[in-house]
């Protein structure tokens, strides 16, 4: 193949870690501010919950796409199975809130381990195609097991148990705002956790794999292990998000485990900014709010997502976060210039 | 005679019907600088790919320190103490120079590199290796720049530096001076000669003055096979070597 | 009892030929352009819808068999010239994302034009009957489908193997530079190949319309099947796409009589098994 046509445009992908190495504390504070302000700003607490839940799923997707360079269409598998596992455990075994969430994370992580181990047997586009085909497979499994999943009708009457310790109820989560409290606390923990993972030896190696997998292998890393672990972590976070989503809706629809769910999570990741944790919040927020505003006015608003996706790839590869960043840089540059002039 | 650090028997690498490496038996003595030379397309880089596990060989056997490593994957050979640099520069372009070196040092950590919870500070050793290497390569001033922004000569030096960071017993360098300007070559030559003191070095090089001045043993390859092997003196005087090179040039 | 299996195998061959047409287009584009088209399933459904519209307006299926692939190909050609060609130099990830955007747009526009509920397309009048062979009866349209798709496959093979265009495509799949050196306008070759590959997906959409109708949400399913075929058969291989397409079609059809709900599931399970045993596909090299 013509190298001109196939070599990645190096200059286009910025060192994703550089931003955060510079000011991680500032972005963490910004994240906290957003999480606190969100229910006050958006029309309803339910919508605020939805934003943070999808932001969690995007954190998971970002670990794969932004930090490891793995484009996975498999996220719906983990999201959907997290929703089903938590819902089924609560319905059939009457497990409590935290057990349900833990089970969902475990299911998502385990499935991601399997999906990852299978898909990374191939690289490049074959890898991507495999993740997509495996999502289709998961969809058909969920569809076939309709006795458990409710098939097309979805799983109804998913409870939202209270926060309880040893049978003693601490908080009731029935009100949307109370549930937002739980989601927000979990999100902050996951965000800080993701930050730690990225700053770890493991996280630094993921970036190396994203940059140049052949060289990473040549300096001694068994890249398969890293990719599979990245998958497992991503799947666990995404499964947890799926469980919260089922609790939010009191319902686990089949669409949770369909390909469009993977696409939606991917689109949020890209529009927010790949390789940026704060971008996860931006991407999920933008799309969820846009969907809420537009879907009532114009049911075909998804068309805009297609356009936005193309526009971002063509003109703003860093996504919203990248846009904000270059704006900030230009400002800083201008400020420095005026100082020098003075 | 001591036992060899690396030994190959009848090593073969086929691309379809074409044998890029064809029945090579190589013997590297520990503590030596062993060079591989030969005209373009002789199969030198292909030989490296076989030794480091980049390519799966079509036949033969590879022994490292008496151990059969024929079936070992590339990363497993690094763990045993082999490290290489590439003829075509292969860096983590968008990561800083220091991070490139640190990652290379961390590559020998095995399972410990999968630690996804503790901060990097708890793995200070690799950062220290990287800092040391920055000094040694005279790249400290550029430590924080993305590797892709270095000049070509500096990228070649970083390429070699990454291989050294693994503190390997056998260092395989594939044309470290390739494409370097005359100004940078002395730095590289000095670096390689120094390396000979602490490591066993297997060197592919086209620059004859470097090869002749620092090698203990020279293997001449042609068309995938070993043509001649011996001391620099012996190789220089061998008629077959001259025809191989001249034949190529004619 | 045997007749049931024969029936399902024939059904499977028909389905398999449709899968082949989709995958060979995908493969052709990838081979020459090194470009992954995630909008392929969307172009398939566009073919089905254009068939529906032509049949509704004119009552003529044969016209749609000609017009719909042409229209889909033309759209692809325009897209290639305006957008796709600007992203050849980008990493595959970005190409996938752009074509995913195109797929979303096609899907939503289809819903705007044809509504969210699927449309059924009548079998062409000429082929409504059944063919009898002793005790065995088989729908004419399905037989036609197998025969027609086989003809297309032969024509495509001749095009690729026996014409200058085919020689250029094959040479270009090895190295685009060679073709540029031959003095061919490589970009024109790219446009034509992209349009041809997508038109094949459109054609598959037309052929499947009388069986499955046109449905706006078919895109992902079709894309999934096409990926199964190319993962098993290998990208860039005509023979691989044919063998794997037929295999997947027959497996799915046979399963439909044994375990109806699980028939779609089976092809993905088969793919997973193939990947486990032979990561590079049944016909692929390491
Ligand atoms: N992936 C490949 N597929 C087919 N042939 C290859 C491949 N890689 C290398 N070759 C061929 O193998 C032969 C040996 O190549 P190799 O790169 O080992 O030569 P070399 O001795 O390193 O040459 P140079 O001095 O130019 O670096 C060459 O003829 C080359 O064309
Ligand atoms: Mg070479």
UniProtKB/TrEMBL annotation, chain C:
Pfam families: BPD_transp_2 (PF02653). Keywords: Amino-acid transport, Cell membrane, Membrane, Transmembrane, Transmembrane helix, Transport. The chain crosses the membrane at residues 6-28, 61-80, 92-114, 141-160, 189-211, 265-283. The keyword Transport applies. It is found in: Cell inner membrane. InterPro entries: ABC_transp_permease, BCAA_transport_permease. It is a multi-pass membrane protein. Belongs to the binding-protein-dependent transport system permease family. LivHM subfamily. This is Branched-chain amino acid ABC transporter permease. It comes from Salinicola endophyticus. The lineage of its organism: Bacteria, Pseudomonadati, Pseudomonadota, Gammaproteobacteria, Oceanospirillales.
């Amino acid at each position: 193949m013509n190298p001109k046509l196939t070599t990645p445009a190096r200059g286009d992908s910025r060192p994703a870690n550089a931003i955060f190495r510079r000011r991680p504390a500032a972005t963490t504070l910004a994240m906290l501010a957003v999480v606190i302000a969100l229910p006050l700003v958006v029309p309803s607490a339910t919508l605020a919950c939805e934003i943070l839940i999808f932001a969690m799923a995007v954190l998971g997707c970002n670990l794969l796409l932004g930090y490891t360079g793995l484009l996975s269409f498999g996220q719906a598998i983990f999201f959907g199975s997290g929703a089903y596992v938590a819902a089924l455990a609560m319905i059939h075994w009457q497990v409590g809130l935290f057990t349900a969430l833990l089970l969902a994370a475990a299911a998502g992580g385990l499935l991601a381990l399997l999906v990852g181990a299978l898909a990374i047997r191939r690289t490049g586009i074959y890898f991507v195609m495999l993740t997509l085909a495996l999502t289709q497979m998961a969809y058909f499994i969920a569809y076939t097991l309709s006795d458990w999943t409710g098939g097309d009708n979805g799983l109804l009457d998913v409870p939202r148990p209270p926060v309880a310790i040893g049978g003693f109820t601490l908080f009731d989560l029935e009100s949307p705002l109370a549930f937002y409290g739980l989601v927000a606390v979990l999100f902050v923990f996951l965000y800080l956790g993701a930050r730690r993972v990225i700053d770890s030896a493991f996280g630094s190696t993921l970036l190396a794999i994203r940059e140049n997998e052949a060289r990473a292998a040549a300096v001694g890393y068994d890249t398969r292990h890293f990719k599979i672990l990245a998958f497992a972590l991503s799947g666990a976070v995404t499964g947890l998000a799926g469980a919260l989503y089922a609790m939010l809706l009191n319902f686990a629809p089949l669409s949770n485990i369909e390909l469009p769910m993977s696409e939606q999570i991917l689109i949020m990741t890209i529009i927010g900014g790949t390789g940026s944790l704060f971008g996860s919040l931006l991407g999920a927020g933008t799309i969820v709010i846009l969907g809420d505003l537009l879907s009532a006015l114009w049911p075909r608003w998804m068309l805009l997502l297609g356009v936005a996706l193309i526009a971002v790839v063509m003109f703003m590869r860093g996504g919203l976060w990248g846009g904000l960043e270059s704006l900030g840089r230009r400002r800083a540059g201008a400020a420095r210039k005026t100082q020098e002039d003075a | 005679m001591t036992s060899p650090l690396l030994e190959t028997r009848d090593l073969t690498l086929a691309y379809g019907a074409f044998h890029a490496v064809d029945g090579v038996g190589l013997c590297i003595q520990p503590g030596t600088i062993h060079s591989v030379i030969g005209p373009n397309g002789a199969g030198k880089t292909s030989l490296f790919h076989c030794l480091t596990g980049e390519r799966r060989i079509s036949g033969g056997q590879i022994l490292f320190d008496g151990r059969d490593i024929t079936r070992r994957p590339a990363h497993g050979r690094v763990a045993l103490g082999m490290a290489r640099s590439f003829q075509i520069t292969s860096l983590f372009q968008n990561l800083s120079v220091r991070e490139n070196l640190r990652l290379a040092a961390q590559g020998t950590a095995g399972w410990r590199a999968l630690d996804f919870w503790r901060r990097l500070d708890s793995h200070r050793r690799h950062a220290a290796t990287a800092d040391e290497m920055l000094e040694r390569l005279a790249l400290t001033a550029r430590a924080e720049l993305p590797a892709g922004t270095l000049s070509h000569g500096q990228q070649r030096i970083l390429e070699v530096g990454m291989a050294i960071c693994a503190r390997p017993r056998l260092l395989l360098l594939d044309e470290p001076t390739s494409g370097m300007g005359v100004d940078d070559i002395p730095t590289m030559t000095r670096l390689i000669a120094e390396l000979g003191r602490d490591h066993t070095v297997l060197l592919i090089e086209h620059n004859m003055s470097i090869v002749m001045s620092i090698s203990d043993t020279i293997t001449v390859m042609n068309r995938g096979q070993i043509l001649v092997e011996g001391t620099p003196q012996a190789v220089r005087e061998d008629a077959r070597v001259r025809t191989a090179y001249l034949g190529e040039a004619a | 009892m045997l007749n049931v299996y024969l029936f399902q195998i024939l059904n499977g061959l028909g389905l398999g030929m449709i899968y082949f047409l989709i995958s060979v287009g995908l493969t052709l584009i990838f081979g020459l352009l090194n470009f992954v088209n995630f909008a392929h399933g969307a172009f398939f459904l566009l073919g089905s819808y254009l068939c529906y519209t032509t049949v509704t307006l004119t009552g003529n299926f044969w016209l749609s068999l000609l017009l719909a692939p042409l229209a889909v190909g033309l759209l692809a050609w325009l897209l290639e010239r305006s957008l796709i060609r600007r992203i050849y130099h980008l990493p595959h990830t970005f190409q996938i994302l752009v074509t995913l955007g195109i797929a979303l747009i096609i899907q939503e526009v289809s819903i705007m034009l044809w509504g969210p509920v699927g449309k059924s397309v009548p079998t062409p009048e000429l082929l409504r009957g059944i063919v009898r062979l002793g005790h065995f009866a088989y729908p004419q349209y399905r037989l036609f489908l197998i025969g027609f798709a086989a003809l297309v496959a032969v024509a495509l093979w001749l095009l690729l193997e026996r014409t200058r265009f085919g020689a250029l495509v094959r040479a270009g799949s090895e190295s685009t530079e060679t073709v540029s050196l031959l003095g061919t306008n490589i970009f024109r070759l790219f446009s034509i190949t992209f349009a041809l590959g997508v038109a094949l997906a459109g054609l598959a959409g037309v052929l499947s319309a009388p069986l499955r109708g046109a449905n706006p949400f078919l895109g992902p399913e079709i894309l999934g099947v096409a990926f199964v075929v190319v993962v098993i058969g290998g990208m860039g291989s005509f023979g691989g796409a044919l063998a794997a397409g037929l295999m997947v079609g027959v497996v799915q059809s046979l399963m439909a009589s044994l375990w109806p709900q699980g028939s779609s599931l089976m092809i993905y399970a088969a793919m997973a098994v193939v990947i486990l045993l032979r990561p590079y596909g049944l016909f692929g090299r390491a």
